[in-house]
Amino acid sequence: xxxxxxxxxxxxxxxxxxxxxxxxxxxxxxxxxxxxxxxxxxxxxxxxxxxxxxxxxxxxxxxxxxxxxxxxxxxxxxxxxxxxxxxxxxxxxxxxxxxxxxxxxxxxxxxxxxxxxxxxxxxxxxxxxxxxxxxxxxxxxxxxxxxxxxxxxxxxxxxxxxxxxxxxxxxxxxxxxxxxxxxxxxxxxxxxxxxxxxxxxxxxxxxxxxxxxxxxxxxxxxxxxxxxxxxxxxxxxxxxxxxxxxxxxxxxxxxxxxxxxxxxxxxxxxxxxxxxxxxxxxxxxxxxxxxxxxxxxxxxxxxxxxxxxxxxxxxxxxxxxxxxxxxxxxxxxxxxxxxxxxxxxxxxxxxxxxxxxxxxxxxxxxxxxxxxxxxxxxxxxxxxxxxxxxxxxxxxxxxxxxxxxxxxxxxxxxxxxxxxxxxxxxxxxxxxxxxxxxxxxxxxxxxx
Length: 448
Description:
Elements: H1 4-13, H2 17-41, E1 46-50, H3 51-55, E2 64-70, H4 76-86, E3 91-97, E4 101-107, E5 110-118, H5 133-143, H6 148-161, H7 176-186, H8 189-196, E6 203-205, E7 219-223, E8 226-230, H9 237-252, H10 269-279, E9 282-289, H11 295-315, E10 320-328, E11 331-338, E12 346-353, H12 359-368, E13 372-379, E14 382-388, H13 394-401, H14 409-415, E15 420-423, H15 433-440
Parallel strand pairs: 2-5, 6-7
Antiparallel strand pairs: 1-2, 3-4, 4-5, 7-8, 9-11, 9-15, 10-11, 12-14, 13-14
């Protein structure tokens, strides 16, 4: 029996009877149109409804996912060309490029995706990651018990509210299929939350089949249709820990805020400046024009660039206290809070131990170098030399060195046109207010 409080939440997230009627109408029309086009072209392909609508676990405002399954002997280029052409049945179609290219558009007021895939009956036959999706639909429909659809809906809405829903590159969290399997495993929304309290970064969960290999991710949920796959592979340890903490907090004091958090209010610039002064750290903002690629292509590159900037600062004694990246309008923005914003001109550079044969190479190099301020001298058992830093500020150092970093293919192209680097109060631009607020405001979404 679902608690009355959760029944109230459910009423807010369930599609109305009218919305469901419109969804079914769109599904019927798109499938019929696709079947007609497939027949007219003489293709051996079949449209399949997948995703949350197919499983009856969709929320209000859902998107509709339709796969077009081609025989396994279809050449890859034919599948991609014809699969994309079929996507033109949608209004305002946009080509999206993932493992298989697919089309996203609109139909009857709903966002719809038309995705080509290979028709398989067993996960061992799969030729790409999307091919097993129809098998996931069959598994969930074959195992879900009456009433559990609403538990899945609650879990999805709750995970979205706490900020961990979605396995896509932007979020790296809990996918819809993962939420469905967790409800099948633990029986209900509350069952998932209660059992998650015992999760640790070595937890392995099975439904029907044991894992076929060893997984290294913090949370492992073995895919019942493919035991070589971890359904929770996208979930990082921080997202997992957030889920567990939120479950504990919700079970102690259930609140609507877990499902419908208040939006973050960006702090005005004077408050951000006052907060930065109070914290006493150095600030650095790096912005690069955001390439016009899909989020699934962009976000891995943003993570790579963020790591590269952080590693560069760390290697050169600018310790990063906290950092984040964001897309702000048409800019990719990397924000850093540093222990110090500037360093002394002198820096110690250590060489080999005194008794190593090639120590002479170190001595010869640094005795002649114009960068040498003092030495070479012995520090402990090693030769060392005091050298002049290339730049004494974090901003100056990044300006001098960013071209040597791996930022990701598309970001590197846009960086060639413009890289803006600002420090101190200049980094606190009004356009970045929300991004800086997210860095400084460490409250969870339900606490705002």
